[in-house]
């Protein structure tokens, strides 16, 4: 979530660009934050990997036994889409089958609880696999065999019951046909006894009906016999084709599977926590955001101080970059010497990078010491600056911030470099004694948007101009512009008003633009001169 307000109305962007509405979710900042916190989510992924491997070793899966059954169906068809085998799986996972298996095992476990320990799966249209877990290998094999036997017995019984019901229905229909045939035979006999009083058409219809009933009785009998014959085929076809056996358990495979699952879960959780934390904490990371929220341009950037032991060439490269930045800052300080009782004084205020700010302040003091004596006022909460003290041969004098009395400033012949902090808990009224102007050394992603606004507001209330911002630990892929373009005097925070007046050409009074002198002095960072005409130039 990005900020919508900017101190002083300054914006970072291209010249003349109008302020744009800030989006609720800045994807660029989100990507940068996730990339910067890669140690966190990579650590989460590694932790998940180790946790998964530890679970595979410390909490091994229980012994598992499997059995495969060949299930014959009376309505088997080649084009069946697996409906019958899915029905068998559903029947297997019922309390009736579980109870029958437990009864065969003489176990007092509840069938509802036993259902959680085994599963069924259809491998083909006629092959059913039973997988059972138990506390021991022998128990798992026994339970798999009991389940297989219980299912076969239930399946055969159901097929027999279905075949018997079908055969009985056919027998009933045959008996009804025989009863009707008896009535037809009686009607034919009666018609024959009456002789000529019976019409030939009626007698012919009775003979046709008798023939039809005779055919139906024969068909019903044949079909009933076939129904009874089909049951032994189903019973013989349903059998155990793979006896219950214990599955081979590979610790390496189980560890690799659990470790992979833990790695994926840890990575997802780490990325999610990082993304949510980035949105909730709202800590600017990009140069444009930090410049806009502090109301000052980013004029230099430095890598972060490495923790622990660093390689010699990396340490040397970081030192060279810091000294190069210090030389740039020294040129900026020399160009604007300031005025008043604190003439030539500048402060270095850190936010989240005390060690880097202390080293940068000492390098800046060394650069300024080439022009004359320099006093460094140490007002850092820690002892970072005291560890970097220079030898007595250098024209740099170290003073503790508590020893500097507001009523007795340092010698005006010395240029003062004050080092302090703008972290939460800062005594804002003491910052004015460290320097008339300040350089902010800010670590990217350390301060929230609200706190950067607070720093800019407090410095503006104390009338301490911000020369610029030194960004520490920037994102190497950050291509945003950290320069404030709108209103140059805001970017310089009033330094243009105190710049020494430039000599005027040919002692001619400059033509001033419209507006009062006060407005010109505060609004324009440069001095405008009147155009020189040829008649005004004295030719010698």
Automatic annotation (TrEMBL):
Membrane topology: Multi-pass membrane protein
Signal peptide range in chain numbering: none
A cellular component term, taken from the record's GO annotations: plasma membrane
Pfam family, one: Wzz
Name of the protein described by the UniProt record: Membrane-bound polysaccharide biosynthesis protein
Subcellular localization: Cell membrane
Species this chain originates from: Gandjariella thermophila
Domain Polysaccharide chain length determinant N-terminal as annotated: residue spans: 25-104
């Amino acid at each position: 979530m990005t900020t919508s307000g900017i101190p002083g109305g300054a914006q970072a962007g291209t010249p003349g660009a109008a302020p744009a509405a800030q989006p609720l979710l800045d994807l660029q900042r989100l990507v940068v934050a996730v990339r910067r916190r890669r140690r966190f989510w990579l650590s989460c992924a590694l932790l998940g990997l180790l946790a998964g491997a530890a679970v595979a070793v410390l909490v091994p899966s229980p012994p598992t036994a499997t059995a495969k059954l060949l299930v014959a169906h009376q309505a088997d068809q080649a084009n069946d889409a697996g409906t019958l085998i899915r029905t068998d799986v559903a029947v297997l996972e019922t309390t009736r089958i579980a109870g029958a298996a437990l009864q065969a095992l003489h176990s007092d476990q509840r069938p509802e609880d036993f259902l959680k320990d085994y599963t069924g799966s259809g491998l083909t249209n006629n092959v059913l696999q039973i997988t059972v877990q138990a506390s021991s290998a022998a128990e798992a094999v026994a339970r798999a065999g009991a389940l297989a036997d219980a299912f076969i017995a239930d399946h055969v019984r159901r097929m027999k019951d279905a075949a018997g019901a079908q055969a009985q229905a056919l027998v009933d229909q045959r008996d009804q046909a025989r009863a009707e045939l008896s009535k037809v035979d009686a009607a034919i006999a009666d018609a024959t006894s009456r002789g000529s009083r019976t019409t030939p058409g009626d007698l012919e219809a009775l003979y046709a009906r008798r023939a039809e009933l005779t055919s139906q009785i024969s068909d019903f009998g044949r079909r009933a016999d076939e129904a009874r014959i089909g049951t032994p085929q189903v019973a013989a076809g349903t059998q155990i084709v793979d006896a219950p056996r214990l599955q081979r358990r590979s610790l390496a495979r189980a560890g690799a599977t659990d470790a992979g699952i833990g790695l994926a879960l840890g990575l997802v959780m780490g990325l999610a926590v990082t993304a949510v934390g980035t949105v909730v904490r709202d800590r600017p990371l990009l140069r444009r955001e930090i410049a806009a929220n502090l109301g000052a341009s980013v004029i230099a950037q430095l890598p972060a101080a490495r923790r622990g032991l660093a390689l010699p060439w990396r340490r040397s490269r970081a030192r060279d970059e810091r000294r190069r930045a210090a030389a740039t800052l020294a040129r900026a300080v020399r160009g604007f010497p300031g005025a008043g009782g604190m003439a030539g004084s500048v402060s270095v205020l850190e936010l989240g990078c005390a060690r880097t700010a202390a080293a940068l302040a000492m390098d800046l003091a060394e650069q300024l010491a080439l022009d004359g004596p320099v006093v460094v006022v140490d007002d850092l909460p820690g002892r970072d600056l005291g560890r970097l003290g220079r030898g007595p041969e250098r024209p740099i004098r170290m003073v503790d911030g508590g020893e500097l009395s507001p009523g007795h400033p340092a010698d005006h012949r010395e240029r003062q470099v004050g080092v302090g902090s703008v972290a939460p808990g800062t005594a804002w009224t003491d910052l004015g004694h460290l320097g008339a102007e300040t350089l902010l050394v800010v670590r990217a992603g350390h301060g929230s948007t609200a706190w950067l606004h607070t720093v800019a507001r407090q410095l503006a209330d104390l009338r301490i101009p911000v020369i610029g911002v030194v960004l520490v630990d920037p994102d190497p892929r950050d291509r945003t512009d950290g320069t404030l373009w709108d209103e140059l005097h805001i970017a310089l925070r009033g330094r243009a008003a105190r710049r020494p007046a430039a000599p005027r050409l040919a002692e001619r009074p400059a033509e001033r633009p419209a507006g009062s002198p006060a407005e010109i002095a505060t609004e324009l960072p440069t001095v405008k001169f009147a155009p020189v005409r040829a008649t005004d130039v004295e030719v010698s």
